[in-house]
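Researcher: We're teaching a course module on how sequence relates to structure. For the next exercise, students receive a sequence and then see the predicted structure as tokens, so they can try to spot secondary structure elements on their own. Here is the exercise chain.
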Amino acid sequence: MHNLEYSERLHKKPVNVVVVGSINMDLSAFVKDFPKKNQTIAAKSSEISAGGKGLNQAVAAARAGANVTFIGCVGDDSAGIAALQVLKDNDVDTHYIKVDKQTHTGTANIIIADDGANMIAVSAGANYSLTRHDIARASSVLQSADVLLCQLECPLDAVEQALKIAKAASVITIMNPAPAVDEATKLLPYADFVTPNETEALSLTHIDPTLPENRPLTTRRLMSEGAKNAVVTLGSAGAYVTAQDGRQFMLSAFTVDVVNTTGAGDTFNGAFACAIARNYALTDATLYATAASGISVSDKTAFDSAPTHEITVDFIARCTYLDTLLKHDESSITR
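Model: And here is the predicted structure for the students to work with:
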């Protein structure tokens, strides 16, 4: 299949995505191996950049071509100013981002090892100043969206309010349950798609999806709690999907040189939200998001690693096995 055919199938229709989520300033240190307890080690290099799951996902969706509006909160500080500028530079609408003068912008300390694995400590800061009132103020954009995408680094009652408003307006909702707090299950009935990674899925279901035989059990458990569709991302293994109509498939990951996996899940969610908003077939949406995520891990910085739509489609088109993949029956898709 030629690039033009992929461009037609994975089209760039204008769509509106609303992201409710977190905004952080990230300090990333790159090391050979993780330090042991009480050990001080020298980092090979470090970077300061904007981050947070919400910001990363919003940028990924915008670069995929969606019109993105962000609902969130930053502190009245230089980190908040810098994060807002990053969003604006990526054409994300920041009108509904509140500035809280009483606390600092959220922060994340990230350690990335040579194999691409990471350890992260997050301080929520202003992210936890987001309220139901802030969500209500943005009702009109929530009701007019094609897709609402949210995570759980903000207060759950605010996230719940956003999901309820969107569902009442028949907007497609995607919930990325990160971090996977126990209370997250009460939000699943409002989720058209739930998109945990393997660790989050284990926390929510007590079933280990890294074992292939457990993957159908994991997604079905999530759906038994109320989610209509379940997409479990499995890092270098790929993604396992169970759809509302009973279809199930495993889509394995692309082979790439891994530098930093920190933003991989966020890139997947942002690209997936854009693809679902464009009404791609579920397998095509998962393929598109998996490709974008694969591209992202080859870059050092989480938000800046998200590819554009054109880069993602070209990357997919260069994978020769996809002639067969995109003609599948959606039962079992691997490579």
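Model: If you want an answer key for the exercise: Residues 323-335 have pLDDT under 50 and may be disordered. Residues 3-23+51-105+124-325 form a domain with the UDP-N-acetylmuramoyl-L-alanine:D-glutamate ligase fold (CATH 3.40.1190.20).
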